Amino acid sequence: MTSCVSRCVYDMKALLFDLDGTIGNTLPLCIEAFRKAIEPLAKKSLSDAEIIAQFGPSEEGTIKALIPGHFTEGVEKYIEFYKQGHSNWPEPFEGIVETLHHLKEKGCYIGLVTGKGLRSTQITLETYNLADFFDCIKTGSIHGPVKKERIEEVISETQFDRSEIMYVGDSPGDITASRACGIKIIAAAWSPTSDYDNLLSMQPDYIFKTIRNFRNFADIQIMANKPIQ
Fold first, then answer.
1. CA-CA distance, 18 to 24, in Å (whole number)?
2. Separate counts of helices (H) and strands (E) for the chain
3. Which has the closest alpha carbon to 80: 34, 141, 117?
4. φ and ψ at 133, to 5 degrees?
5. Which CATH architecture has domain 14-24+92-221?
6. pLDDT of amino acid 7
7. Cα gap 141→16, rounded to integer Å
C-alpha cells in the first residue's frame, strides 16, 4: 500500500467510483435530510451516530430501519429535504470533475458504484452536472449493503479482467467489497468526513489525501492509448 505514485504501472482500464465522500462532501447533507425527515415522524431526536449506524442499505433501508411505520412518507420527506438541502452543498470536491473528464479522455472506463438509492443519486449527479457522464451507474439496495454485488455486475457486463479495474472509495466498506471482488482499492481520504487512520489500518492498495495526488497516480496507471470501444 502506498500514498504516492507507484513505479509499477498497471494496464488499468476501468475506475469505479463511490459517490458520498468520494466525489462530493454529501455525507452531512444525507444526515441533515435524514434528521429533518425522520425526527418529526419518530417524535424523537436522533444523533449523528444513530443515523450513521443504519448506513449500509440505501436511504430507503435506513428509513425502514428507523421508522418502519412511516416508511413511504419518510422516504418522500427524505428526498424532498435532500433535494432542497443540496443547494448548501452545490459543488463536488474541487478538482474531481476535471479529473473524471481527464481520465475518460485518456480512454478509461469510468463507472459509479454507490450504496445510495437511485433517486438521491440522480439528484446529486444532476446538481454536479454529471448525470450523463458515467459509463455505468450502480446504486444500492433497501435490503442491505450490495457494493460487492454491484461491482461484480460491472465486471460481468464489461468483461474487464479484475486486474484492469480499481475502485475508489472513502469507507472501510469500500475496501472490504473491493477485496471480496479481487480488485484493487484506492482509499479516498480527501473528504473532511473520512477517517484516514482507520482507512490506513485496513491496508488499502493505495490511499490519497488529495485529488491532485490521485490524479497523478491514475495518469501513470492508465495504459490505453485510445478510447475503449
1. 10
2. 10, 6
3. 34
4. -85, -45
5. 3-Layer(aba) Sandwich (3.40)
6. 37
7. 18
Name the grid cell of 18: 463511490
98 Cβ contact partners less than 8 Å away, ≥ 6 residues apart: none
pLDDT score at 223? 57
Nearest Cα residue to 1 out of 134, 196, 154, 226? 196
Q: Is 135 within 8 Å of 110 (Cβ atoms)?
A: yes
pLDDT on residue 136: 98
CB atoms within 10 A of CB 87: 9
* One-letter identity of residue 79: I
Beta carbons of 115 and 57 less than 8 angstroms apart: yes
pLDDT under 70: residue ranges of the chain: 1-10, 223-229
pLDDT at 228: 36
* 153-173 core/surface letters (b: 16 or more CB in 10 A; e: else): ebbeebebeeebbbbbbbbeb
What's the pLDDT at 127?
Answer: 97
**pLDDT, position 174:** 97
Dist. CA 144–CA 115, nearest whole Å: 9
